[in-house]
Amino acid sequence: MANVPITASPTGVLKLGEDVQKKKAASLWAVASRRFLKHRMAVAGLIMLMLIVLFCVGGAFFITEEYSNKLDLSQQFQPPSAEHPFGTDNVGRDVLARTIWGGQISLMIGVISVAISVFVGTLFGLLSGFFGGWVDSILMRFTEALLSIPVLVLLLVFSRPLLGITDTIVIFGRQFYASVVAIVLIIGLLNWMRLARIVRSVVLSLKEQEFVTAATTLGARKGRILFQHVLPNCLAPIIVTATLGIGAAIVTEAYLSFLGFGVLPPTATWGNILTGAQSRLDEVPWVWLFPGLLIVFTVLAINFIGDGLRDALDPRSNK
Residue 7: helix, strand or coil by DSSP? Predict the structure, then answer.
């Protein structure tokens, strides 16, 4: 048997050397990475997403935001041409420029809103599953009450006041209507409930495991057990849910903007670009086709990545 370095802790309890623990953790992520790279659709999705991000970020170096918001009524609804590869919209703005800058906002809304929902959902699930009793009852009844209401209804109700917001804010040198921040908060705070239930179910099984019992017996504080022992073992479902949630958030912003409850122009998003073709869908397909395809490809890519991560992080997988 190979020699394993063992050291004594200050309490006299023997433990494996830190180098062995690090190698074990590294091997787990190495196995997950190898499984992910074997998933062809996941790799294809990752490449597709990287190309879309490159399009949105790299294109900004060649096309200014001022140009994407430039009005020219004489160029209204011009079809794709050398001057305007994606055509123009209902007020003569270049659709290519708006898809580039609008893509940045759509992707930002997806990522930040999911970060908010993951934080809230994970916290609710951890506290509910670990402490149980009245804590579980209160948190889960509140979660189930929100789940019983259709999300679209909640989104429309909370988005309605945004129509009157005309204040602007500056983030990273870019000027936005405050509605962008509000949409991020609304989507993030209304999509955490399912994750909370998933995390709670995982925690309920984990807290009966031997390592939690051992930590409790050794006198570890509940906060330490929860965040240093239980939470790391919940990361797999959290990562998968967060990945898939980004695509869902992008679609949510798109249909809210299409219905007129989302981000206000001139700030562009893929969703509100589509509204420029509402009255003439058959006559000017280029206005909705290109941003629509970008939404479809982005969501497909994220779903492929999510499927790959689910398989890669599944401890029962033999792939």
Answer: strand
Nearest to 107 by CA among 302, 241, 240: 302
Residue 313 carries which side chain, given as an amino acid letter? Answer: L
CATH topology (fold) of 54-75+83-312: MetI-like fold (1.10.3720)
Say how far apart CA 68 and CA 318 lie, in whole Å. Answer: 49
Give the tokens for residue 248.
Answer: 């869902």
Split at pLDDT 50, 70, 90, the class of 91 is confident
- Name the most confidently modeled range: 208-212, 227-231, 244-248: 244-248
Give the domain ranges of the chain.
54-75+83-312
Compute the CA torsion angle 19, 22, 26, 27 (nearest 10 deg). 70
Residue 67 has which token pair? 């140009």
Q: How far is it, in rounded angstroms, from Cα 138 to Cα 193?
A: 14
DSSP letters of 22-89? HHHHHHHHHHHHHHHHH-HHHHHHHHHHHHHHHHHHHGGGTS-HHHHT---GGGTTPPS-SS-TT-B-
Residues 142-161: tens digit of each pLDDT: 999 888 888 778 777 777 77
- Tens digit of each residue's pLDDT (9 = 90 or more) over 59-85: 888 988 888 888 888 888 888 888 889
Max CA-CA distance within the chain? Answer: 82
CB-CB contact of 49 with 305 (8 Å): yes
Contacts of 76-80 spanning 24+ positions with Cβ under 8 A:
77/280, 77/283, 77/284, 77/287, 79/284, 79/286, 80/286
Q: How far apart are CA 17 and CA 5, in angstroms?
A: 5
**Which residue type, as a one-letter code, is found at position 222?**
K
